Amino acid sequence: MASSIFHFLILLLFAFSRDRVLSIEEGHITAEISNKGLDFLKDLLIEKAESSLVPLELPKIEKSVKIPVLGSVQMVLSNIVIERIHVTSSTVKTGDSGIVLDVSGATANLTMNWKYSYSTWLIPIAVSDKGNATVQVEGLEVGLSLSLKMLNGSLKLSLLECGCNVNDISIKLDGGASWLYQGLIDAFEGKIGSAVENAVSKKIRDAIIKLDLQLQSLPKEAPITNFAELNVTFVDDPELSESSLDLEVDGLFSAKHEAALSNHYHRLLQASSSCKEADKMVKISLQENVMKSASSVYFEANKMHWIVDKVPDQSLLNTAGWRFIIPQLYKMYPNHDMNLNLSVSSPPILNVEKQQIKAKIPLDVVIDVLDVEEVIPVACIST
């Protein structure tokens, strides 16, 4: 179950924190997930869980039933398998203790084999019969309460409570003299219900344990290019409110194989526009230091350099197009192609303001003429 729903659980379970612990770290990237976003993720989670929970095998059930005249009848149910689970109603709510996921009105379909045997003084030999049966479970309810903490830059997932309850069971027998034994099998309703509740709860607990291990093993750096990576270390517990939850990661760029030094950048939280539309699910806020760190890494890696040899009006990249403006250029290099050599001479200066980003980019533009065997710079413009 954990492997198939893992990617859908991650965002949903970011909210599972109870006590907010202040951290000396500060996140430069903040993701705000609204209740509508959580509800959307919850629906995805349940859709995946419906298929990943099944088939689910239940342990064999044995029971002795005393019947007048016949005496004690030994009955066994085996090969009990939950084949299908369908959820009709679910809710997700946030609170001080984390997040609570409730599933109600779910149904489940089971198949099983049945067998009985008995012996009595009236009949000197053992009497037995067997067949198969289908079971319909109605009103299956599941409740989960979880928390998520930040631990050493990763996420620690804990299951606080897990409960499962079966409200109604209908059993239909096939094979043998099933019409005769229906009453005997009905005596198993309680045991079947308990087996379903225990099996589903155990499956969920095992999935949460596996998910916790996967969350803690998530990388703390996300590769962006072959020379740059993004620090995605969590810097605090998720912050929970009635309308949303906030997640903070370090969010600074660094050259690969180099640690991002958080103190290298002045941390100044910039104002961000509010998300007013009702259908917005996630809002991501970036501090200007995210872009500053990215531009610094790209500049140091010598990636702010471009050759322009294609433009909408290609005649502009030929000396013939300039013969009336710069006659000397055309005279020296008649009908020669040209290109523009663009280089950023120092790290760009970026400032993030409300509703706009201001950038000052020191740029050198060198105009090159392409001769037969060499590239000849003929002019340089600096900004």
Question: How would you sum up this structure, described in words?
Answer:
The chain folds into 2 domains: 205 residues, Bactericidal permeability-increasing protein, domain 1, CATH 3.15.10.10; 80 residues, no CATH class. The chain is built from 6 helices and 21 strands. α1 packs antiparallel against α2 and α1 crosses α4. The radius of gyration is 34 Å and the shape is elongated. By secondary structure, it is α+β, with helices and mostly antiparallel strands. It comes from Sesamum radiatum. Belongs to the BPI/LBP/Plunc superfamily. BPI/LBP (TC 1.C.40) family.
From the 3D coordinates, which CATH architecture of the largest domain would you assign? Super Roll
Question: Main sheet, how many strands, which sense, barrel?
Answer: 8 strands, antiparallel
The CATH class of the largest domain turns out to be Alpha Beta
- Gyration radius over CA: 34 Å
Look at the helices and sheets and give the structural class.
alpha+beta
Estimate the mean pLDDT confidence. 77
Helical proportion, percent range: 10-25%
Total individual domains: 2
Number of strands: 21
Q: Which residue ranges are poorly predicted, with pLDDT under 50 across at least 5 consecutive positions? A: 1-25, 259-275
Shape: elongated
H/E topology pattern: HEHEEEEEEEEHHEEEEEEHEHEEEEE
Q: Tell me the CATH superfamily of the largest domain.
A: Bactericidal permeability-increasing protein, domain 1
Organism: Sesamum radiatum
Family: Belongs to the BPI/LBP/Plunc superfamily. BPI/LBP (TC 1.C.40) family.
Domain Lipid-binding serum glycoprotein N-terminal: 33-258
Keywords: Glycoprotein, Signal
